[in-house]
Amino acid sequence: MLQPILAYGHPLLREKGKPVSLDKEELDTFIDQMWQTMRRANGCGLAASQVGKNLCLFIVDSRSTYQQMENAARQALYENGDTGIEEVFINAEMISRSGDVWVEEEGCLSIPSLSQPVARPWSIEIRYLDKELVQRQKVFSGNTARMIQHEYDHTQGILYIDHLNPVARKLLMSRLKKIRAGKVQAGYPMCFFR
Known about the structure:
With 194 residues, the chain is an alpha+beta fold. Helices cover 30% and strands 29% of the residues.
């Protein structure tokens, strides 16, 4: 079942996610709904808070992005041998971030029709439970690491626009107000907070 995506301005997007404590069947159903919702919206990641659940849970699909890229872009944005992931991250904990930072455009399903250049570390190490509730601790880099950081931020109540300098944020305010007021078409079901 598709879920509406919460739009910028909804207070749940600014809350820190709570640890996941759903039973396995309920969790599997919710995760499946998240994948369906994300794919319907043509996204590459989605956090539980974006579909109305204040949980420390997100999904990332960097594999589809990889498959749609030209070889030159793949070489620039993915480490050698990395073809992307389709992964569930439950109760994730960021262990470390590299000092090597790069800037790339980011958008967000909760902030439709906007994208901005955001500086993020090239690689990260993260500990999490996967869909089978098996604990993992992995290092990710490039575009995959960027997507994970973006979605992890959602579990901390942080949006990508928070990483912009104050001048850039100020220039976006009129567009953000339109999103908050529900005056932007997204092409997928959204829930606006008024």
